[in-house]
Amino acid sequence: xxxxxxxxxxxxxxxxxxxxxxxxxxxxxxxxxxxxxxxxxxxxxxxxxxxxxxxxxxxxxxxxxxxxxxxxxxxxxxxxxxxxxxxxxxxxxxxxxxxxxxxxxxxxxxxxxxxxxxxxxxxxxxxxxxxxxxxxxxxxxxxxxxxxxxxxxxxxxxxxxxxxxxxxxxxxxxxxxxxxxxxxxxxxxxxxxxxxxxxxxxxxxxxxxxxxxxxxxxxxxxxxxxxxxxxxxxxxxxxxxxxxxxxxxxxxxxxxxxxxxxxxxxxxxxxxxxxxxxxxxxxxxxxxxxxxxxxxxxxxxxxxxxxxxx
Length: 310
Fold this sequence. Notes:
By secondary structure, the protein is mainly alpha-helical. The protein is built from 13 helices and no strands.
């Protein structure tokens, strides 16, 4: 029993599974880490996929993930498939939309989530067919398969391990945070999705991305409660910082790498927050296709709709 803190010290035997999970994730991290630099390499040919079009495809994946109410892991796995395929194969931009849908379809199957490929094609308004998506998914699975058969680790996998480690060392979790644990994890996953949608941060290691988001969000929560807490709470803050440092050493993330990653992440998140807080002043208008107008029973019927109050 630690008399200064009034609770039992963590059992080293209980920590072993968490350390094993982290070690296992680190072993396959570099194997599946895509080389996005190859997308904009010197041998680029006209009509090929660029980093800008890649970012647009990932944003489309995020939209479909939200629209279809799929788990976060499906999005992260789909992005992993997409980036690995683009780094290994030369793809024409005209096939990018079909490739994007195929990665999402394959990721949903990998994460045991049901998805209707026909609905997926209709929602995306893609010119490809359901058969094209399924056929492309088979090609993606074949080209991104690792000989050892191990599963790719995503930033969400590392984040889950970090949160489990923090919860293990911090028994008095309610002294650290004031919000629900589920909501905190949800906010972190959303920020990771935003970062992967930008190629300037997507090429960083998954372990580093997750560690910075983990540190930034928990520090933000603790800073709000620090003025009203006792010295005991200050001790919890110091303990958290020491845990972050231990994780950094275990993941072999150099200070320079962490600093560069932090600067770029802060820049992307600042832009994201400014866009999220910007109010749209675009007026809503009725738009009709030619077929809809032609099928109207009487001319001018479509002009009788009332104005929508924003």
